[in-house]
Amino acid sequence: MYKRTHPQFAPELIVEKKEVDPQPRSPLHQEQRIKKIDLNHATFAELQLLSGVGPTLSKRIVEYRENHGQFQKIEDIMQVQGIGLKTFQKLQNYITVE
Q1: How many other CB atoms are there within 10 angstroms of residue 74's CB atom?
Q2: Are residues 8 and 50 in the same domain?
Q3: Most buried of 3, 18, 19, 91 (most Cβ within 10 A)?
């Protein structure tokens, strides 16, 4: 999760903040609810809201979806040229397939 001051922080992905105890018992108390991007229905522009996904990768994701059909699981995004394990690991908490 990026800090709000990070240059790639995408505030439009935050839906709501959870209330945080003054003395949190675990890191889960500090998490924010995130609206996930559906790989099967996201537009070119919506895909670019994901960290590390610019116009080129966004275009490749849309083209892959058009040529091969819907993604069956989020790991399928690694079939898109330019998205490997490291990129997937950064994206996995922000993407879904429905």
Answers
A1: 17
A2: no
A3: 91
pLDDT (0 to 100) of residue 29: 41
- Token pair belonging to 22: 């003054």
Of 2, 72, 56, which is closest to residue 34 (Cα–Cα)?
2
pLDDT confidence tier of residue 20, bands split at 50, 70 and 90: low
CATH code at position 67: 1.10.150.320
Shortest CA distance to 39 belongs to which of 77, 93, 88, 13?
Answer: 77
Does residue 12 sit in the same domain as residue 47?
A: no
Domain boundaries, position 79: 37-98
The percent of residues above 70 in pLDDT, for the chain, comes to 65
**Beta carbons of 38 and 65 less than 8 angstroms apart:** no
| Positive or negative: CA dihedral 67, 78, 54, 18 | positive
